[in-house]
Amino acid sequence: MERKPTVVAAIQARLGSKRLPDKVVMPLFGTPIVAHIAQRLSRATQLDQIVIATSTEKKDDPLAAVSREQGIECVRGSERDLVERLLAVANSCGADAIVRITGDSPLVDPGWVDRAVKAFRDTPALALVTTAPPPSFPEGLNFEIVSRRALESLDNILTDPDDREAFILYLINHSEAFPRHTVRYTKDASDIRLTLDYPEDFFLIEAIYGHFRARGQAFFDLEDTLHFLAGNPELAAINRHRIDRTK
User: Fold this and answer.
1) Residue 1 pLDDT greater than 80, yes or no
2) Which end of the chain has fewer CB atoms within 10 angstroms, the N or the C?
3) pLDDT tens per residue across span 41-54
């Protein structure tokens, strides 16, 4: 029987954001943002492990401390070289693929992560499973699955530091060498921003979490969130001016 590929989720995070300082460890109802992300990912049934992938820079020591306090494994690597950092995760965890989740995604939907991991496992030749382009999910719900083989190839191919930081663009632009599958949401919800980068983003995310906490609902998915925002359009409009129209 063929071995099932090991898939590990890496929450890519570091401190030092200029727009919203230390956003990944900001407390949201008493729990750091990065821990909320890990808790949501823990509901995914297709993941073998969840780790925080941060840098070896001293300024990220507090993030490593938070990961220890929260019982989340932390793998540290290069600050800017994301190929190197994610390969460090793959090597540390024995992963065949990495699900890259950015640290500004406290509304990540584990059900969609499961769908994407299944798509990867069903087609072993895939180098990349992504949610964009074209965009269909709200900002903050996008993620990628990158095979270990693809990361090892990129480690040999890419020499420019900017390319190694934006390696997903290289994979997308070279799909003939790196087969790709795109997971699309059931409708175009890309006009909604659910990522965390500005104070108004935090206000919206706090309102969403607060609504479901008040209902005693321990978990809520993307459908729940969009239904809530549809009934509260003034909330959805709070950060709409921050949506990245270039994607």
Assistant:
1) no
2) N
3) 999 999 999 999 99
**b/e 92-131 (16+ beta carbons within 10 angstroms → b):** bbebbbbbbbbbbbbbbbbebbeebbeebbeeeebbbbbb
Measured in whole angstroms, how far is the alpha carbon of residue 168 from the centre of its chain?
13
Strand order in the sheet with 7-12: 73-77, 49-55, 7-12, 97-102, 144-147, 128-130, 180-182
Grouping H, G, I as helix, E, B as strand and the rest as coil, residue 245 is coil
pLDDT tens digits, 59-111: 999 999 999 999 999 999 999 999 999 999 999 999 999 999 999 999 999 99
Inter-CA distances, 58 with 62, 78, 83, Å: 8, 12, 20
**CA 176, CA 173: separation in Å to the nearest integer?**
9
Mean pLDDT of 24-45: 97
* 203 vs 220: CA distance, rounded Å: 18
* Other Cβ atoms within 10 Å of 68 Cβ, number: 12
What pLDDT score does 124 carry? Answer: 86
CA nearest neighbour of 53 among 42, 63, 40: 63
C-alpha 24, offset from chain centre: 12
Q: Is the dihedral of CA 142, 147, 151, 156 positive or negative?
A: negative
193 phi and psi, to 5 degrees? -110, 115
Tokens matching residue 185: 């949401």
pLDDT tens column, 145-198: 999 999 999 999 999 999 999 999 999 999 999 999 999 999 999 999 999 999
